[in-house]
TrEMBL record:
<dbReference type="Pfam" id="PF03358">
    <property type="entry name" value="FMN_red"/>
</dbReference>
<protein>
    <submittedName>
        <fullName>NAD(P)H-dependent oxidoreductase</fullName>
    </submittedName>
</protein>
<feature type="domain" description="NADPH-dependent FMN reductase-like">
    <location>
        <begin position="5"/>
        <end position="119"/>
    </location>
</feature>
<keyword id="KW-0285">Flavoprotein</keyword>
<dbReference type="InterPro" id="IPR005025">
    <property type="entry name" value="FMN_Rdtase-like_dom"/>
</dbReference>
<dbReference type="InterPro" id="IPR029039">
    <property type="entry name" value="Flavoprotein-like_sf"/>
</dbReference>
<keyword id="KW-0288">FMN</keyword>
<dbReference type="InterPro" id="IPR051796">
    <property type="entry name" value="ISF_SsuE-like"/>
</dbReference>
Length: 194
């Protein structure tokens, strides 16, 4: 089966460290693997409105929500490339994840069944030297993957503050070379670990 990678870019600036690191990792994908890149800043989603218990969500037919829903459903591999903002995902990224809650309740979409078995990957840049501070971001992605029955390939982290800094993080660039070649086991919540 042809793999189709969707890169969802969550930075609030273009050509930032997260995107640079994600592009380095993507360079290693075989030529036959499709790549699609969507910037959430360029395609801003509306604020999420929780209608789950009032009425049905309606499938979006136009605008960023339709673009992102269709692209997400089409991806075998979903890469969330979010900078570390306040130790977690950026607001753009969080809003995208919030929309998943609507898509889970949208008649005719079958979001959960479609996403099950597909693979979620994370890429993130952060200014802090100690990468342990990105655990909340990694936990958000991993638990979200577990909730949807997805596989989880982990989070590729790189260091940097101003755009381009991550290109000096030689360890991150080395990890980028093999990142998407790694095994991505089924995601598990921490309490499910043996
Ligand atoms: C709103 C905001 C919050 C941030 N919070 C953190 C943080 O919690 N920890 C950290 O190490 N760096 C933090 N940073 C620094 C960014 O993670 C860093 O500049 C990163 O390279 C930005 O990624 P980008 O270049 O892809 O946009 C923050 C930056 C911004 C703008």
């Amino acid at each position: 089966m042809t793999r189709r990678f969707l890169f969802v870019l969550g930075s609030s600036r273009g050509d930032g460290n997260t995107e640079l690191l994600a592009r380095r990792a993507a360079e290693q994908l075989p030529a036959g693997v499709e790549q699609r890149w969507i910037s959430l800043a360029e395609h801003p989603l509306p604020d999420f409105e929780d209608l789950r218990h009032d009425s049905d969500h309606v499938r979006p037919t136009e605008g960023p929500a339709a673009l992102l829903l269709d692209a997400t459903l089409a991806a075998t591999d979903l890469v969330i490339a979010s900078p570390l903002y306040w130790y977690s995902v950026s607001a753009h990224t969080k809003r995208y994840l919030d929309h998943w809650s609507g898509w889970l309740r949208t008649p005719g979409v079958d979001f959960k069944a479609t996403m099950a078995g597909r693979t979620l990957w994370g890429v993130s840049a952060l200014a802090h030297e100690e990468t342990v501070v990105a655990d909340p971001l990694a936990g958000t992605l991993r638990n979200s993957a577990a909730y949807l029955g997805m596989r989880f390939g982990g989070v590729l982290l790189g260091n940097g503050s101003k755009p381009g800094d991550v290109l000096h993080d030689t360890e991150a660039l080395a990890r980028a070379k093999t990142f998407f070649g790694q095994d991505a086991p089924p995601a598990r919540f921490p309490y499910e670990e043996a």
